[in-house]
What we know:
The protein is α+β, with helices and mostly antiparallel strands. It has three domains: 2-114, DNA Polymerase III, subunit A, domain 2 (DNA Polymerase III, Chain A, domain 2); 125-245, DNA Polymerase III, subunit A, domain 2 (DNA Polymerase III, Chain A, domain 2, Roll); 249-358, DNA Polymerase III, subunit A, domain 2 (DNA Polymerase III, Chain A, domain 2, Roll). It has helices spanning 7-17, 71-80, 131-139, 152-155, 197-206, 259-269, 320-329, and strands spanning 2-6, 32-38, 41-47, 51-57, 60-63, 65-70, 85-90, 95-100, 103-108, 125-130, 157-162, 165-171, 175-182, 191-195, 212-217, 221-226, 229-234, 253-258, 280-285, 288-295, 299-306, 314-318, 334-339, 346-349, 354-358. It has an eight-stranded antiparallel beta sheet. The chain has an eight-stranded antiparallel beta sheet with strand order 14-11-12-13-25-24-23-18. Strands 5-1-7-8-9 form a five-stranded antiparallel beta sheet. Helix 1 (7-17) runs antiparallel to helix 2.
Amino acid sequence: MKLTVSKEALSGALKKVLSAVNVKTTIPVLNNVLLQADDNGLTIAATDLEVYLRSTIEANTEQPGKTTLPARKFGQIVNALPDGDVCLETNDTEQTAISCSNAYFRLLGLNAEEFPSEEETAGDWEFTLPADEFRKILSKIQYAASTDETRHVLNGLLLTIRSGILTAVATDGRRLALIERPLDGDGVTDCDVILPPKVVGELVKILDGKEDLTVQFSESRAAFLLGQTLIVSKLVEGNYPNYRQVIPSNFSQSAVFPRDPFAAALNRVAMVVSETSASLSLSLEKAKATLSANSAEVGEGSEPLEVSYDGETVNISFNPDFLMDPLRHLEAEQVVLQFNDQYSPVSISGDEGFLYVIMPMRS
């Protein structure tokens, strides 16, 4: 294999795929990235057998071929190279010469035949939408997924399609975040899949721009194609709980908060919360909300906030992190809190199609 490629393009492609490498693997070739050169350019791939990442970039290929190189070390070397064209040349003993300007390296690789091949994902279900829109959908809910590894189904994100409406859901049993979006085009059939947390994290990092993202699901795998970048992942096996049953059918009270001032006040008052006193109080009275917290170890804090509210005086206690999480990711200038009483589920809405349901804490 022999080719020339720009340092910028090579570094960018490696940045996209390196996170799929699991440094704790006991399979040596999985510590490497696959490099494959042909007339279409240079394709770089990495996998941990759960998530597969592949990116193709332009290259001047003099001699087609393929090899694998140690992922982390190759990435470090490329990032440290001076700007300009990089020449890669692999010999028959899987040694790859890397040269750029006056810099020269030789890395020992492994035979590319040992690298796992990625099967084509059959598009039993398929749709497209702008990449940055799908990234926002995921980022607005992923924090609500469970981190308890014994509840593997709730570690993932549910994507469900019904009558052309995509609903993305995350829950850990104490709170739930969902967002709905109509899909463009006809013929998108109904389906339910659960995405593993790792691929969700990769998508949030990689997806950007207005370019269309093509999403394909099969019974066991998901594929995401954006330009020359492909992400393939296994799906989580199991049945997601009926999330609709935890959403109250109606609310008797509502309050409208300015999102940024609300988030800033929450962040300040939460500074006095401790592990032994982990709740924050939200008191509502006409046109006013007061956030307060206290702990024996730290002290106390409070801050009033003007809101739109004309209901009865009520005091509701929350886990402050759970209350702040959606505010960090929403874009609306105002958010609406709806509730029935101080012990029933509370909903937060703001961005189109978004709903967050949280259980209050008992003080």
